[in-house]
Amino acid sequence: MNAVKKAVAATGVGAAVVLGGRAVGRRREAHRDRSEHWLAVTIDRPFDAVSGLEALPGPLEELRAHVDLRLRPAPGDRGTEVLAVPKDDDVSREDLRVALRKTKSLIETGTVIQPDTPPTTHPGPLGRVLRLVVGKSAGEGRL
Amino acid sequence: MRALCWEGVNDVRVQDVPDPKILDDRDLILRVGLSTACGSDLHLLTGHIPFMQAGDVIGHEFMGEVVEVGSGVTRHRPGDRVVVASFIGCGECWYCRNDLWSLCDNTNTNPGITQALWGADPGGIFGYSHAMGGFRGSHAEYVRVPFADHTAIPIPEGVDDLSAVFASDSAPTGWMGADLGGVRPGDVVAVWGSGAVGQMAARAAQLLGAERVVVVDRFDYRLRQAEHVFGVETLNYEHTDIGAALREMTGGRGPDVCIEAVGCEAHSYGPQHAYDQVKSKLKLETDRPIAVREAIHNCRKGGSVFVLGVFSGLVDKFPLGAVMNKGLTLRGAQQHGQRYIPMLLDRMASGELTTTHLATHVLPLEEGAHGYQLFKDKEDDCVRAVFHP
């Protein structure tokens, strides 16, 4: 069964997404700003398993009304690619990155790892600056 | 509990910190038995890796006794003696399932920092800055071990604590360099650095069948130790032209596999050292790749260079022309410990792999600052300072 047929046949999450859409397909790349690109993670689970879920776990499901979401099989049986982009101003790309990462971790491991708390009891002035950076880190990066 | 904390550049102190708690049902709490300083910690001490907060507990190479397990832990029970891989692996992502444990997708809690620096985030590591997850380190009485079924490995009977602690990081890191560097029977292998990791790489090369193993360093006491314990050949770069010596030893070819186990604060002599010192002080390069350059330059045509030493960012005067025109294979990695640790513990039990000689200074945790001073300044012939809480 090819990828498109799989998507059509899929229920749950799969039925709610558009697969292999033109915006993320293998077409020639038009000029687009970084902010226009879809954010993506690959979940190391088969496409059928992910697209067949009743709902994606974690915060991604909570954002569903405000994002466009696509699922497609990763090449070489390397799992399922999940792509998302905000469709209104109610969701930031930072929030969406966090949601994608957490959803991937929840599907793969059943949990989201936490650092020890408190990481330190007396971070000092430079440490507090670093805390601001670290606080934003989960929503930044190259997704 | 008491723990050795990073308090600023070249300032570590034993402090009171909150006890760790189980935060997830797959965590365990370990009573640390032994925890060793590692050369890569020195990059934290010197401020080379600027993602530390005052009060962060350091240390990532350790063993101990399980005292508490979460309800989801199936492979360990209180009372078990385990060694812990320095990199935390979830065991469920594509990288863990393909034995590339240090690249785990799900254990770095601050992925944005390293994604910006390197284009992707490696896994989380104990006690190694907030860029690598912000987990508390092991120079402490207790430590939380996430994804314990994968990150902690039972220590078999017949392997004592002092041997086992080096199965946490030094031994698997060294083994990985020889293994992924492609050492084959009959090879000549050169290893830059005769610290714990370099010695473990040299021993791994021997066990993988290398016919000659040559270790390069500037500290005679470390070279003597490698020579005495493992019977490798040694070269001191302060007294010997390394390139000429290696060509002479290999019939003009150069070593088949060159393993760099020095890292980003390498030393040298003459104009090259001065050049890199100035560039790094002026922040025109973050790392000094002196040993990497030498490994690439001296490797035989079509050979393999493996970078084991820790690098953080950008280097200058990288001999890409040599890599390309000599047809070299260049690889590097943080350690995929879970892939190698059980096998290495078996080799320790059988007597094939000796590690206790690396622990030149075994000290109470309360003397942690002194231990790091000995280790950093290479005083009293220190190879590794190992702490017991």
Please tell me the CATH architecture of the largest domain in chain B by its name: Alpha-Beta Complex
Largest interface: A-B, 38 and 44 residues
Basic shape of chain A: globular
- Low-confidence region ranges of chain B: none
Shape of chain B: globular
Q: What fraction, in percent, of the residue positions of chain A are helical?
A: 25-40%
For the biggest β-sheet of chain A, the strand order reads: 1-3-2
- How many structurally independent domains of chain B? 2
Helical fraction of chain B: 25-40%
Strand proportion of chain B: 15-25%
Number of strands of chain B: 16
CATH topology of the largest domain in chain B: Quinone Oxidoreductase, Chain A, domain 1
Q: How many structural domains can be distinguished in the coordinates of chain A?
A: 1
Which homologous superfamily in CATH is the superfamily of the largest domain in chain B?
Answer: Medium-chain alcohol dehydrogenases, catalytic domain
Q: Report the span from N to C terminus of chain A.
A: 29 Å
**Count of discrete alpha- or pi-helical segments spanning 4 or more residues of chain A:** 5
| Biggest sheet record of chain A | 3 strands, antiparallel
Distance between the termini of chain B: 10 Å
Class inferred from helices and paired strands of chain A = alpha+beta
